[in-house]
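As agreed, record passed on underneath.
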Amino acid sequence: MNILDTIVADKRIEVKLRKSLIPIKQLEQSVLFHRNTISLSRKLKNSATGIIAEHKRRSPSKSVINQNLNVFDVAKGYESAGACGMSVLTDGKYFGGSLDDLLTARASCKLPLLRKEFIIDEYQLLEARAYGADVILLIAAILTKAEIKKLSEFAKGLNLDVLLEVHNEEELHKSIMPSLDMLGVNNRNLKTFDVSLETSKRLSALIPNDFIKVSESGISHIEAIKELQPYGYKGFLIGENFMKTDNAGESATQFINELTT
């Protein structure tokens, strides 16, 4: 099993446990469940920078990134930096995140929030809604075409934006459907962890213009963004670059200022 298979196997056990502890009815009674969501795809469409800044404590490929930064401060910092949206890792075992991080981010900023998670069950979409997310991530590598359709349509029924992530042409072909808002290309090879912007460039021509194109992983310099913009990318997910500093908000501010000058 590769790391993704291992994570998904653990996620199935975790989701089963969560479902047994917190009934759907309880999630639907959350104060945040019926709030008006903020569309990330709309914001990206009208943005000159398209930065989606991430809160991530650690990852399987990089081990610890930063355990010291407070989610509240990071969210406020990203908002004042002018980020288009914020991605919040909610996986505990491999990334050190939690749904409480999502809740804290929601309380501290008005940015569209992406629940960054390994989603395999509709229950996780109800959780995302109850904890203040505006956008959910679906990963083509761990889902069948039927599952992508079912989960994306369920998300749209909850007024959540859908970002679908692909790594190669095969995943892209099975994924294109009207219930998606954004198509994300992950530049990281999940088997080797090598990162190459060529993946985004190669797949860009295959993504229909109905979808907002988002490039993910390996974007640590403004040159990378300037390189990808001519390929039609409007969104750029940046995690480790900001999180590995002592002040993620300040780091994002410098990056966005540099990009816009």
Q: What stands out?
A: The chain has twelve helices and ten strands. The CA atoms of residues 8 and 118 lie 7 Å apart. The mean pLDDT is 94.
